[in-house]
Write the structure tokens for this entry.
Amino acid sequence: MVFELMERNMYEWIKDRKHFLPEARVKRHIYVLLKVLDHIHRTGVFHRDIKPENILLRDDSLKLADFGSCRGTNSKQPYTEYISTRWYRPPECLLTDGYYDLKMDIWGVGCIFFEVMALHPLFPGKNELDQVAQIHRVLGTPSESLLVEFQRKASHMEFNFPRMKGSGLDVMLAHVSPEGREVMARMLMYDSTYRPTAKALLKSAYFRDMREQDTYTSQTPILRPVHFRSSEESDGADYSRTGVSAEPKRETVQLPALSNAYMQKFKVQKSNVEEKSRFVSKKKSLSPSKPFYKSYL
């Protein structure tokens, strides 16, 4: 199989960077990534390994790669427990015996969003227990009712987590807009039932300018070359002043009909050329032929 060549992945994009990236540029990439996830989720697939190394970039183009761990959304739980790269693994994947769903992809996007904006990983756990501790340091310990629900679906560990409030995301993202931090916090909801889908996130106010840009692009007519139409073939509209007229519904372009005056001028010019051509041909026929010499031995 042959695929197009991309320049780098998202990890390489931020590696060794000393200054923060413009939020508008990062927001564009996150918006496109959410559109990709919305598409694959609607077609019945979730990725299960969202991480910076699997997001490929080339200029403003973004591709989601490595579908080797993907799973059907309608397949029966439990799924494989050890899935996804640890730093981007959601709590329901860490604390249960494989009872998770497509919302784990949204958690991965939230971790990536933070990492690209802060230039360091959000939850760099050394092992599974340390990974849970990293999450609790930032988001706090979840409610007892949620832990009981997780414990009911877990057989590999006992939940004796110390109670802590969590530092939150704002202290680490002072340079990010409040709207951006709010969207990121929604992606990183501890309880996956309150974590929004990709479709819901795309409708948030934070991405309004991205949606408007998409709408403008989709309504921009596509210019394609078409044949000239005479005044008899036209639809009766006056194109003499407007020049090229676009028809967005059919995504075609109608060129202006040539006026009668222009056509008459063209016919006159054409007749003059033909007359001159006949005159030249007649002159050539009347010119004396070259002498012919015949030699005899």
